[in-house]
Structures are given as C-alpha cells and as structure tokens.
Amino acid sequence: MTARIYRPSKNATQSGMGKTKLWRLDYLPESPRTIEPLMGWTSSSDMNSQIRLDFESREEAVAYAERNGIAYRVEEPKEAHRRTVSYSDNFRNNRVAPWTH
C-alpha cells in the first residue's frame, strides 16, 4: 500500500487558486480496474483508492504516513510561471503586431 503526497494543481475550468494550498494524500491502486461483464461499468476491488486526505502542510502529510506505517512518495509542486502584462501594452506605439479592429 503506497501513498502519493502532492499539492493539487489549479482547476482548468476556474480562474481562482482555490483548493490548491492543501497537500493531499492519495493511495496508489494496488490492483488494476476491471470491466464488470453485465453492465460494462469499470470497477475495482481496491477500497483504498477511495480515500483522499487533505493536510495543511507537507510535513503533516509525511508525519501521518510515517506514523501509520504507510509507504509514500512525495511529489513537489511546479510553480506556474506568470508573465504580468498591463492593459496599456495593447496601445503602445512600438507593438510587434499592429492594432486592428
């Protein structure tokens, strides 16, 4: 039973950074998913894949895993590179592309 400790990335459909400050502990699947023959649903016999724990810091998540004897893997977050551009740059005289309507 191995766990993955990571900080979730920003949701692609939202502009805000909500739910990205907490660290999450998820269990990695131990058995592959199977297709149920009658209905065709995907199922798994691994109940740990349903567990998702959130922590305030990376250290708390690691301490929880060590305290409970869970093997874990920590994935460091990649910080987004944001370029700040002002609205007035659209109207500069030395623009690369000319302003058109």
List its salient traits:
Double Stranded RNA Binding Domain; elongated; 22% strand; 1 helix; 101 residues; 6 strands; four-stranded mixed sheet; mainly beta; two-stranded antiparallel sheet; 10% helix
Summarize the structure.
This protein is mainly β and 101 residues long.
Question: What would you say this structure looks like, in words?
Answer:
This protein is mainly beta and 101 residues long. It is built from 1 helix and 6 strands, in the order E-E-E-E-E-H-E. The strands form 2 sheets. Strands 5-2-1-6 form a 4-stranded mixed sheet, with helices on one face. Strand 3 and strand 4 (42-43) form a beta hairpin. The longest helix has 10 residues, at 58-67. It is elongated.
- CATH-defined superfamily of the domain at 2-10 and 17-77: atu1810 like domain
End-to-end Cα distance: 59 Å
Overall mean pLDDT: 88
Radius of gyration: 22 Å
Q: Which spans of ≥5 residues are poorly predicted at pLDDT below 50?
A: none
Order of helices and strands: EEEEEHE
Helices and strands in order:
Layout: E1 2-6, E2 23-27, E3 34-35, E4 42-43, E5 52-55, H1 58-67, E6 71-74
Parallel strand pairs: 1-6
Antiparallel strand pairs: 1-2, 2-5, 3-4
